[in-house]
Amino acid sequence: MKVEKINFDKKNDKISFLLKGVNESFVNVIRRIITEEVPTLAIEDVEIKENSSGLYDEMLALRLGLVPIKTDLKSYTFKEGCKCEGAGCARCELKMAMKVSKKGYVYADSAVSKDPKCKFVYNMPITKILPKQKVELQMTAILGRGKDHAKWSPGWGFYKKEPVITIGNVKDAEKVANVCPKGIFNAKGGKLALNKDKVYDCHLCNACVDLDDVKLEDTDNYIFTLESWGQLSCKDVLTTSMSILLEKLDQLGANLK
Amino acid sequence: MLIPIRCFTCGKPIAHMWEDYKEQVSKGEDVGKVMNKLGLDRYCCRGVFLGTVELIDLAGEFKRF
Ligand SMILES: [Zn+2]
Ligand SMILES: [Zn+2]
User: Fold this and answer.
1) What fold characterizes domain B15-60?
2) Which end of chain B is more exposed for a tag (fewer CB within 10 A), N or C?
3) Is the ipTM of this complex over 0.95?
């Protein structure tokens, strides 16, 4: 197996790379482990002291649960299997509190976390309060997996086959260049050329093939894209997913003995 | 009511872009260009922004209990 990095978009926390010499089922295993198994922190319990905002308590709690929390996997463990035996301690639970009475949006940043390393990643509007309304609550975040609830998913992975485009005897270069939704072609002086940086953006829509003499083939290489939702960095998501896969294989081997 | 925290379809966190989006659109900028700038490249997330109508100010006037 060979891996080539294609692009790393730091601003949007998005990475894409080319996988060579693997088959589709292996690429899918990576994708499923990322979305279902890599643990992250998310709000699980909310104790509402007062909520006179326009949103119902349940809706407010759901919204809080969905806000990504920066996760430090080294200092947190799952609640099941923790030394405290389910009672809840600083190793398996993260406590947060929120108290807002100023009118306007109630932002995620107004929440005070017990652990300064693990805070809400984005400053999102949770609800909006009018004068004399108030929100006061306490939250508990725990480590969980994406297969139990999507709020624990660390990101989104998807893949496609690597495209290979060959330009033949094209009649109307301008037309082909305009029909491509991703702008992969350049038309200069009636001649069609490939825009090398953008070939990997191709999503194999075949619009150019239907129109003119352009050949679009796919290889057995895969372009894998991973978008992190902010709890963990793309690198952490990938390395954790790989160690989870190895752990599962070790278990399988041990059980077969 | 309010901008959803995440996109219904893909799960991308989007709520933090709402106020920026609202401000730029109210200045008369092209909606599509604003969404491109914010990094919303899938049409599922774009649809959430287009479909959101903020009614919370009105709904907050009525006591729920
Ligand atoms: Zn514990
Ligand atoms: Zn989306």
Assistant:
1) Arc Repressor Mutant, subunit A (1.10.10)
2) C
3) no
